[in-house]
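Long-time lurker. I teach an intro course on protein structure, and each term I like to show students one example going from raw sequence to a predicted 3D structure in token notation. This year I'd like something fresh instead of my usual example. Would anyone be willing to generate the tokens for the chain below so I can use it in lecture? Attribution to the forum is fine with me.
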Amino acid sequence: MQRSVSCRILATLTAPSEIVLAVAVADGAATTETLSVTLDGIAVPVEEVLADHGTRLHVVSGLEPGAVSVMYDAVVAGPTPSAVVTELDRLQYLRPSRYCESDRLAAFARFEFRGLDGTELVDSVSSWVGRRVAYVAGSSRPIDGAVSTLLAREGVCRDFAHLTIAMLRACDVPARLVAVYAPGLDPMDFHAVTEACIEGEWIVVDPTCLAPRSALLRIATGRDAADTAFLSATNDSLILDELTVSAVIDGALPTDDLTRSVRMS
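-- Reply from a regular --
Happy to contribute to a lecture. Here you go:
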């Protein structure tokens, strides 16, 4: 399976700033790739910082106010390295986090999914979120977490992932958020899904069902969206002007059998 992905970001900096990008596919995945960043049409140096789980951050420091352009392209041929589960992962991804308030949802989740465990529990949580939350573009705020999504019953992919993660953690299943390129996603954008730890493996969970799980390409992995933002800037100085994302696969898209567990590869 060969996948080709790209993104184009145009932004305006209104003050001196440092920007951090998380747009590159995870470490070890790309067959070929290019990344360029310019300020007012002039190329600027980029430093790569390797974070947890193969996440690659690209840092651009010392930027003056002006027009920033980011261009990223990559081709991934064949499977990517499988995610392993460490004891630290198990402990870290059971804890509440900023956008996945599993402690606040504990009583609700444990009552709603009482008597379930393992794959049956994960499938039930995913189905519950998919049925009871409406996907509505622009319906949530960047600061909304799982509790807000549960109350509003609408959101976008990150909201679906946050609620799924929070309820799984409340039921003692380690879960985390993965930002991905998603061939087949419509409208095309960056996508957010959940990985749940079942029997020592990270299994992909996506209650939106908007793209086949076997075609996903990992970008960044963390506790929630605070760890996986595709772009951030210091001094509250950035205005996002344009974002274009592309993710395609050679040949036909794979079908997604929701009765099967899928690992991201």
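Some talking points for your students: The helical segments are 87-92, 102-112, 118-132, 146-152, 157-170. The chain has two domains: 2-79+230-249, 87-222.
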